[in-house]
Amino acid sequence: MIDISLNDFLKLPEADKLPYIKEYALLYAQQFSRADLDDYCILADKSRSLFKSPDGARLLGNLLSNRIALNFFVQPSSRTFLSFSAAQAILGMKRMSLRDLNISSVSKGESLQDSIRTFISYVDLVVMRHFDNDAAVIAFWVAAKASRRVTIGGTEKPIPIISGGSGNLHHPTQALLDIYTLGKSFENSGGIDGKKIMLVGDLKRGRTVRSLSYLMKNYKNVELIFAAPDEFQMKDDILKFLDSHAIPYTKIDSISEAIGTADAIYMTRIQDEWDNVKTGVHPRTHDNVIFKTEYLKLMKPTACLMHPLPKRDEIEIDVDYANDSRVVYWRQERNGMWMRVAIIAKIFQCDQIILSS
Ligand code: NCD
Questions:
Q1: CA-CA distance, 285 to 269, in Å (whole number)?
Q2: Are 20 and 162 in contact (CB under 8 A)?
């Protein structure tokens, strides 16, 4: 199935890994085409409306009742872990979780490869969040190489691996739910094409903004605005990717510079877990990348304010309770669960049953 050694596979540039992983794993936002994104959003919407009726909920709940999922999350997580778990429950999957390496055999010296090989002996899907940038790629390789197979759509396939956050580089399923949220916010203003999207905060180490930037290749005439102090600005690899897809971007250091023209404002937290020195004190982010309540008055009437969450002090607390429909981050959180239903349904090829119900 995969005739390349793990070391050689790890050395491949991401673009060259894509043909191997397509349809067997969800590791990178770059995997997705515009048609894929549109399909996922339709599937999420359809699942959401089906679940409203007992019959629809029963139909969804029977789709994957013979499958077992493992949520292997060894970095902190609330939303991604819970929404994956809820999505699996909606689809009727049995679920297990492993969240602490100290109580797994890794503490006895087991390698990640051996751990993954063990997991896939018991389950039909692994969703994973790991501090190591390569962990999900390694898991994919092990699943592709190992003999255990799961039958999907009549064909034997490797156990699917979904990244729920890889180091500080990738968070593809967050990017999918962000697209779903952007699409909903722009439902009456022409969709995502042609929009100006401002990404704010720790763009250097924030994996959500990196994955979302990759997805922009699928939209026409979008423009990105990176609002961050120099030390947290977007890294060159993403800028190169945007250049190669002719996606224009500007770097600014203050939200206020683009607040009146941005169609979406995507806030992020300073990712200080990657700081070398652990002070235990969260540095307040720079004042000019804090979303102040007064900015609501300056935002376009059709704009939206997003955040992958968790947030700290980068959004003033009154914004949460401003009762402003442009503040969408709590809805974004819920959208995540439906997008993850769509992701799992698509991997197990039960999307057509959902769409035709
Ligand atoms: C993000 C993450 O883990 O990268 N959270 C999430 O999945 N919604 C963002 C963050 O931790 O700041």
A1: 8
A2: no
Q: What is the pLDDT of residues 87-145, one digit of tens each?
A: 999 999 999 999 998 888 888 889 999 999 999 999 999 999 999 999 999 999 999 99
Say if residues 209 and 203 touch (Cβ distance below 8 Å).
yes
105/9 Cα distance (integer angstroms):
25
164 within ligand 1 shell (Cβ under 6 A)? no
Residue 17 tokens read as: 């890994």
**Cα separation, 266 vs 204, whole angstroms:** 14
- Ligand 1 pocket, mutate which of 127, 171, 181, 332 (most atoms under 8 A from CB): 171
Q: Which residue has the tokens 């993954």?
A: 116
Topology of domain 6-167+335-355 in CATH is Rossmann fold (3.40.50)
Q: Which of 189, 94, 188, 171 is nearest to 130 (CA)?
A: 171
Instruction: Indicate the pTM of the whole model.
Output: 0.96
Q: From the alpha carbon of 75, which atom of ligand 1 is closest?
A: 3
Q: Which two tokens stand for residue 107?
A: 């503490």
- Using DSSP bridges, classify how beta strands 150-152 and 125-130 pair: parallel, antiparallel or unpaired: unpaired
Q: CB of 170 closer than 6 A to ligand 1?
A: no
Q: Is the CB of 79 within 6 Å of ligand 1?
A: yes
Backbone phi and psi for residue 158, each to the nearest 5 degrees, phi listed first: -65, 155
pLDDT tier at 23 (50, 70, 90 boundaries)? confident
Q: Where in the chain is the domain with CATH 3.40.50.1370?
A: 6-167+335-355, 173-326
Asked if 47 contacts 342 with a C-beta cutoff of 8 angstroms, the reply is: yes
For the chain, the straight-line distance linking the first and the last C-alpha, in angstroms and rounded, comes to: 34
Parallel, antiparallel, or unpaired for β 150-152 and 155-157?
A: antiparallel
Query: What is the dihedral sign for C-alpha 119, 121, 123, 124?
Result: positive
Residue 10, sorted as left (phi over 0), alpha (psi -120 to 50) or beta, turns out to be alpha
Q: Is 261 helix (H, G, I), strand (E, B) or coil?
A: coil
| Second CATH level (architecture) for the domain 173-326 | 3-Layer(aba) Sandwich (3.40)
> Encoding tokens for residue 84?
């994956």
Query: Which candidate, 160, 173, 97, 165, places its Cα nearest to that of 335?
Result: 173
